[in-house]
Structures are given as structure tokens and as C-alpha cells.
Amino acid sequence: MELTLLGTGAPEGLPRPDCPCAVCATALGDAARAATALLVDGSLLLDLTPGIAFAAARAGHTLGQVRQVLLSHPHDGPAMEIPAGLPQPARVPDGRELTLISGQRVRAVATDAPGTGYEVTGHDGERLLYLPPGAAAAGTSGPEGPAAPYDTVLMDVLGRPDALARLREAGVVTPDTDVLAVHLGHDVPAGRETVRRLTAAGARAVPDGTRLTVGPPPAPGVRGLAADTGPAPARPPLPRRTLVLGGARSGKSLEAERRLAAWPEVLYVATGGTRDGDREWAARVSLHRERRPPSWRTAETCDLVPLLAEEGPPLLLDCLSLWLTDAMDRVDAWDDAAWAGGGERELRERCAELADAVRTTRRTVVAVSNEVGSGIVPATSAGRRYRDELGRLNAAVAAECEHVLLVVAGQPLPLKG
After folding, report:
1. Are strands 152-155 and 127-130 parallel, antiparallel or unpaired?
2. CB 259 within 8 A of CB 200
3. pTM for the complete prediction?
4. What values do phi and psi take at 268, rounded to 5?
5. CB atoms within 10 A of CB 11
6. Which of 81, 122, 130, 300 holds its CA 20 to 30 A away from the CA of 338?
7. 71, 47 contact by CB (below 8 A)
8. HSE-CB of 52 using CA atoms within 13 angstroms
9. How are the residues of the chain apportioned to helix, strand and coil, as percentages rounded to the nearest 5?
10. Which of these is catalytic: 123, 183, 186, 288?
């Protein structure tokens, strides 16, 4: 199948007309996006948007070969203008299957938001899933039983990362699936941060007008051959290890959770313990638990090295600064005599062991830690010792990570990767 993304934006487009927000103000060039619409093999159009004929012309197509126009979501606003010669657009009832004159098979997929998703199967069995904005597929099984994995999925990745997690859990999105983010509006982060979040989700965004081939390239001489469309842009590598740094209430934990929001099963490792009797700490823990997806599991432990050595789902380690507190407690590092008598050496060995475990792990890991070296110099030797050792630990772990972020005022600043 040949795909042409005539638009990749939200229904209002990006920038939105007359919107003064920072994202709209900077949505220039390739960052500007028309409302999402997809042309499949030149003959099937998914979603009819304003200026669709001009968008097709800019991508090197005409709409003269379109035989079916399907709508995926309610098109609010002004009445749609249907270009001359284009079939009347329609919505297909959930579960209904169509066999088009051009040879593709289309099945309407129920969603949990207003609209309909479409599963398109090409001539050679290649499979595509297209979902409307803000929606997740309500089911992934067809009349013949569990569905096979999709080759390509186009969906609202940043708005509904949980929808991508569900598809992964059902086995229809695999590491070989090309996940494309569409319906991108002014609620996405500006600049390169969108790319970084999509990379963490195993997805990517492409500019309007991009043409892609799903499945093996067609034979020479067949319309839609790879030489006409050009090679598909390479998917960015999925980071194995990410370290998120930040000060108090900077948003570092929330940012770390975002990095794994599109994965169905995550082990959240809480290193802070329960602190019986501390009501303020209990409130913090409760807030963290409430915002985690229900499919995530929680382990309260500071024994991180064995977890990093095991096979299993992604780990979210929150946080290394509390792990260090526990490690310093274990070697009595707060006492000057114990520190000089072997505590320093033992702590450094523990930290080196943890950094080595991060280096050799085969799991996806997102670790959180505090950045405390930019504030007031602590008044006690124990406080200065903790500050120094946390700085050393952060540097050692950061050296083993592909991505390192510093969160300031809720804004993730890339330091590495």
C-alpha cells in the first residue's frame, strides 16, 4: 500500500486560526499541519478536510482516482466542501467490512470516543489501522478471531498514549509496527520535545505530504513504487535508558511517567518507603499512585541491582536520591568516623555497582533523581556529603544513559540524546 499523508494535524489544524498560544506562534514550515487526512493507493481517502485538493496536488497527486471517502470523526464547523468528482463521504457502521473496487478491504473499528477507526488490508495482506483524534480502539479482534499485527498505525499518540499501550498489550502493535502520530494540535509540546516524546513511545511524526509504502516495495513499473515515494524516514532508535533530573516540584516524576505512558506494563519502583506516621509523605505517595495507569505494578524497594539484571517490562525508578539516602544509612555515612573508617569506600562500591547494572541492563529504564548541586551549600558536613555523593551518582548513571533530561519549571531540557 502506498500512503500519502495529506495532513497530520488536529481537526482545527496547526497553527489554529487566530490562536495566540506559543505552540501556534512557532508552528512554521514543516511544523505547520493541516487537518489529518490519509490517501491510500490513490483510491481511498480517509477524512475529508478543507483544501484537500490543493493538499493532494502539493503531494504530487490528484483526487481523480478516489473511489471511496470515509470519515473517521464528526467534522464540526463549516459545512464540508466536496471537490468536483469526489464521491460522497460516508461513515461506516462499527464492525462492517467493505471490499473496495480498488481491491483493499476495509473494516470499521469501534472506538471509545466519538468516531470510527478503519482497518485497511492491502492486496498483499499488509495491514493498516487509522484511528480518529482522541480515540482508542474499543477492540482489536475481528469476526475471525484475534487480529494479526499491524504494519502501520496512525493515531493520536500524544493525546492518547494509553490507546497505544492497549494495542501493544493486545499484540497488534509490535516492535516492527510503524506508529505514526497524527491529529497533532496546539496541545503538543513545541519544538524538538514532540520528537523526543514520540521516540520514547516508539512512534514518530512526519510532515504533511509525506508518502510512504506499507509492506514490501512494489515491483518496478507498478504505480507507487519506492523510487516514486522515496525511502521512508528512519524511525529514531528507542532509548533503552533515560535519566530525568530536576529540583523539588519541577515536574521530573511526571515527565518520567510520560516517557513510559505508551507501554502497557511498567514496574514502578518506589525507593522512598512508606514512612509510617508521616501524613504529608503518604499524601505524596497517594498522588503518584493515582496518576499511574492501572496496568502498572509497584514495588517498594531499594534493591535495584537484581531488578536491572532481570528480564521484564520497563522499569521506572523513582528515585535515585532516596536510593542514595538508604545506601548512606546502610554504611552509616552520616557519622564522620564511620565514613573515614570504610563507609566512603563501601558507598562508592554500591554506587558503582548500580551504575554498572544500568549499563548492562536489557530492560527499558527511566530513572528519576534530584539535582541538588545548584542551591545553598548545606550547613553540616553530613549534608555536604550527601550533596556531593548525589552529584557523583547522577554523573555515573547519566554516563550510562542514552537520554538525560533536566526538568526546570516543568520544561524538559535535553542534556544528552
Report:
1. parallel
2. yes
3. 0.86
4. -90, 110
5. 20
6. 300
7. yes
8. 25
9. 30, 25, 50
10. 288
Grid coordinates in use for 133? 483524534
Q: Which residue is listed with cell 539484571?
A: 309
- The string of DSSP codes covering 202-243 is T-B---TT-EEE-SSPPPTTSTT-HHHH-PPPPPPPPPSEEE
- Unique residue bearing C-alpha cell 460522497: 88
DSSP 150-184: PSEEEE-TTT-HHHHHHHHHHTSS-TT-EEEE-SB
Q: Which three cell numbers stand for residue 212?
A: 510512504
Which three cell numbers mark 5?
Answer: 499523508
Could you list the pLDDT tens digit for every one of the 417 residues in the chain? 999 999 999 999 999 988 999 899 988 888 899 999 999 999 999 999 888 888 888 888 889 899 999 999 887 666 677 888 899 998 888 889 988 877 889 999 999 998 999 999 998 899 999 999 999 998 765 555 567 899 999 999 999 999 999 999 999 999 999 999 999 999 988 778 898 899 999 999 999 999 999 976 544 443 333 334 444 556 667 788 999 999 988 999 999 999 999 999 999 999 976 556 667 756 666 666 666 788 899 999 999 999 999 999 999 999 999 999 999 999 999 999 999 999 999 999 999 999 999 999 999 999 999 998 887 888 888 889 999 999 999 999 999 999 999 999 999 999 998
Residue 60: C-alpha distances to residues 32, 57, 197, 331 (Å):
19, 5, 31, 68
Contacts 24+ apart (CB under 8 A), 188-191: 188/23, 188/158, 189/23, 190/22, 190/23, 190/26, 191/26
Total Cβ atoms within 10 A of residue 74: 11
Closest CA to 156 of 20, 30, 56, 11: 11
Amino acid at 160: R
Angstrom distance (rounded) from CA 297 to CA 306: 17
